[in-house]
Amino acid sequence: MATISLTVQPNALLLQSTRGEKSVPFSGDQELTAIGQRLNQELTDMGATELKLATPSASRFSATVVDLAGRRVDLATLVTDRTNIPVYGKENGVTSAAEAVDLASRHLTYYGVYGGKKNYGQEALLTLGNGFFGLRGAYLSVDASDDNYPGFYAAGLFNQLTTPVAGHDVVNEDLVNLPNAQFLQVSVDGTPIDPQHAKIVDAYRDLDMQNGRLTLATVIALAPDKHVVVRAEKVVDMKEWHHYAVRMTITPLDFGGTITVTSKLDGSVENSNVERYRAFNSRHFDVQKLAAQGATATLRAETKNSHVAFVIATKLAGAEDWAGTAQDDVVEQTAAKELASGQSWTVTKDVVLFTSLESADLDAQAAALLPVVSYDTARDNAATVWRKIWQTSDIEIEGDVTSQKLARLNIFHAYVSASPIANPHLDASVGARGLHGEAYRGHVFWDELFNIPFYTQHYPDLAKSLLKYRYRRLPAARQYAASEGHEGAMFPWQSAMYGDEQSQFVHLNPITNQWDPDNSRRQRHVSLAVAYNVWYYYHNTQDVVFMKDYGLEMLLSIAKFWLSMAQYNEKTGRYDIAGVMGPDEFHEGYPGEDKGVTNNTYTNIMVVWLFAQLQKFQDILPADLWANSAKKAEFADSDWQQLNKVETKLALEISPEGIISQYQGYFKLATIDLDAYRQKYGNISRMDRILKAEGKSPDAYQVAKQADALMAFWNLTPATVVNVFSDLGYDLPPDFMAKNLKFWLARTTHGSTLSRVVYSELAAQDHNAALSWQLFSEALSSDYYDIQGGTTAEGIHLGVMGATETIIQRDYAGVDDRGDVLTITPHLPAHWQSLHFKRLYKGAQLDFVITPEAVTVTADRALTIQVQGQPVQVPATEATTVKLTK
């Protein structure tokens, strides 16, 4: 081990170890990132394994903050995130390498004051929630502005509004931003402190993922010799899931005076998180009742068109007398106290939310719960439930602190978005952006494909509740199919409250500021994502009752839709599926048309796979179960006969070299020099918008937003996909994966965060470890570094978060559950020393420890698995270790 000591000098960082010392010069006009790069290089060259800060910290909240020419920076972020070297100090926090590793791997911290989309994005990543609601990680004392957005969202609570745009009435159904109930503001001697304009000299935000608690600490300079510390905490109750609480402690450091705390229950809020949506009507509810009585306040409202009623009630503690007013949709309550220098005052605020979606008699329920909850009960309940979640769902990575932190961050937000206690009581699924912001208007997409498997592995009842959201909207899916002239069930590309199609007909191109046609609703493959999640749930739980009551009817209804889409082509002797879009999204049709494409490879492969699974289900499920489900789905014997025909005659397109076409005719499109566009535009992830701004159409070019032609290899094992090709009469060459990776990566701009995870897995399958790691690490940190240039501000990307957990388990640990037998073929990244996680497989609870040398498996019942292709008997409750061959 090499412990390096760092001392901050006026113009240099002095690094010292037992082997010698080095100096890293810096100046006030240097970018902090440049200083960090030089520092990290020197630490690496010195063989550093830990960094000790010899200079006292410049922050009262963190041990690792230094002042570099008047700019404060947290070395733990600057160094550990990039090098995995733990950083610790002498005081005010972590003071050992072990403590530093624990902080870096279980907490998300930000030091300093930020604004604009960067702060919006940090608020999204600091969001707390329990599946019923999400509470963005904004400071308590801010209203919505261009720098702060204290959003509050309840799962499944949508409303539609109409706005005239370019001569058309545009209807948008939005996840509603609910009243801001967390608001607490400090005033000193009658002057309010507004964090958006105050002089904040020390600011530290700490999300404790282990316990589900957010701390927001600031030192505010009111004058050169007048400072006040404001420390706020938020916690969302994971057990009493209608409740959250905040706590604020105010301490004048070097003065005495009158401190006033103002609480608001603000019903004047609108949806304004997404800048490009602000042109639309965004006031989604009407306040019907507003009251303040002593320390309590109540607001009752109803959404304008969906007519969802909700009640928010608050309770303040920490003062004897609260003076309140209720007007203009806002309740305001104030209390004051005289404080001497160094004296602290703590105020707490409890908030309860009930909606007519999940509750009856809202006022009575709020009145019953509010008196019996407190900040302490919320804190303790959150800690207890989160402890159980981590015991069940944690992925422990040894040897990579940064990957560990980000993997846990992704797991944390999975359970912020949906939780095992709240969601079984809700009629909701997970939106593509979680409960963290208003992008995509909170809608549910195919992104469930990347999330529901993770929930299935750890909390199958939670996964089942999300699948039941789709089942309850099966009538709407049937109606949607019928409206397009099809049979069966066609789920919408964007789903919200009712299950009807919420995709727009136009969308704003931010480059041209013009409204372009939007045909994304043609992504009919979303129904195949629903089918896959149903299959995956049964495959891992063996829940026959679910299949009887819900699952099989869904699969048969979806299959009936695809049978009606498949049309026989007399010229080719095969069946075609036309008028669709694949996951790529850049191609809405053929050049000069906007009617979709024909024989999208991903779609057709998944259709064939679905038909094959139904044949298996017919063999293994009871006959009466099958007959009853077929009756409900109106799946007749003639449909079954047609399924057998289509299953072996669906058309695909493959080049003579073995390149899989994205769809029929793709190879006829013009190629494009993406490197030239990168030189001209820099970021070309949204190449579709760039081409349209140039008066061109992406439909005319071989360019892809994300994985499409190879997407089936994410859902299914390579052997399964190859067999589908073979059964359809298409043979792939032995080196097809390497050829296809090269071909498609050269044409893909990764305009979706999901693109990198799919290609990372494909690279791992092709034994290209370096490429797999590059793409995985970019995906893992995509929200943390907001690599799409501000989109995290509008909500996390929940799909990629779930997908990274899949890569860790399925590709790097090598635990693949998609076949009839669980297989383990590890490919650990070179610097990972071990992986440890638990999960469910076919009703058995399994515990895995993967190292470069061995695999250890413990199961709660006996089962047979395969390790590196060899069968292994795992007895019940006994750890079985298998040495790996290189």
Protein architecture, described:
With 886 residues, the chain is an alpha+beta fold. Among the domains are: 3-108, Nucleotidyltransferase, domain 5, CATH 3.30.420; 116-390, Beta-galactosidase, Chain A, domain 5 (Distorted Sandwich), CATH 2.70.98.40; 813-886, Sandwich (Maltose phosphorylase, domain 3), CATH 2.60.420.10. The strands form ten sheets. A nine-stranded antiparallel β-sheet has the order 8-16-17-18-19-26-23-22-21. The protein has a five-stranded mixed β-sheet with strand order 3-2-1-4-7, sandwiched between helices. It has a five-stranded antiparallel β-sheet with strand order 15-14-20-25-24, with no helix packed on it. A hairpin with a 2-residue loop joins strand 12 and strand 13. The longest helix is centred in the middle third of the chain and has 22 residues, at 544-565. The active site is at 585 (proton donor). GO terms for molecular function: carbohydrate binding; glycosyltransferase activity; hydrolase activity, hydrolyzing O-glycosyl compounds.
Layout of strands and helices, then pairs:
Layout: E1 3-9, E2 12-17, E3 20-25, H1 32-45, E4 50-53, E5 65-68, E6 71-74, H2 75-83, E7 87-88, H3 97-106, E8 107-111, H4 116-125, E9 128-129, E10 133-135, E11 152-154, E12 158-165, E13 168-175, E14 184-188, E15 191-192, E16 199-208, E17 213-223, E18 226-236, E19 243-252, E20 257-266, E21 285-293, E22 296-303, E23 309-317, E24 323-327, E25 330-339, E26 345-355, H5 362-369, H6 375-393, E27 395-398, H7 401-417, H8 448-458, H9 460-472, H10 474-483, E28 506-509, E29 514-517, H11 526-541, H12 544-565, E30 566-569, E31 574-577, H13 601-620, H14 623-633, H15 637-647, H16 674-681, H17 687-693, H18 712-715, H19 718-727, H20 736-745, H21 753-765, H22 769-780, H23 798-812, E32 815-816, E33 823-824, E34 834-841, E35 844-850, E36 854-859, E37 863-867, E38 870-874, E39 880-883
Parallel strand pairs: 1-4, 4-7, 33-37
Antiparallel strand pairs: 1-2, 2-3, 5-6, 8-16, 9-10, 10-11, 12-13, 14-15, 14-20, 16-17, 17-18, 18-19, 19-26, 20-25, 21-22, 22-23, 23-26, 24-25, 27-34, 28-29, 30-31, 32-33, 34-35, 35-36, 36-39, 37-38
Helix pairs in contact: 1-2, 3-7, 7-23, 8-9, 8-11, 8-23, 9-11, 11-12, 11-13, 12-13, 12-14, 13-15, 20-21, 21-22, 21-23
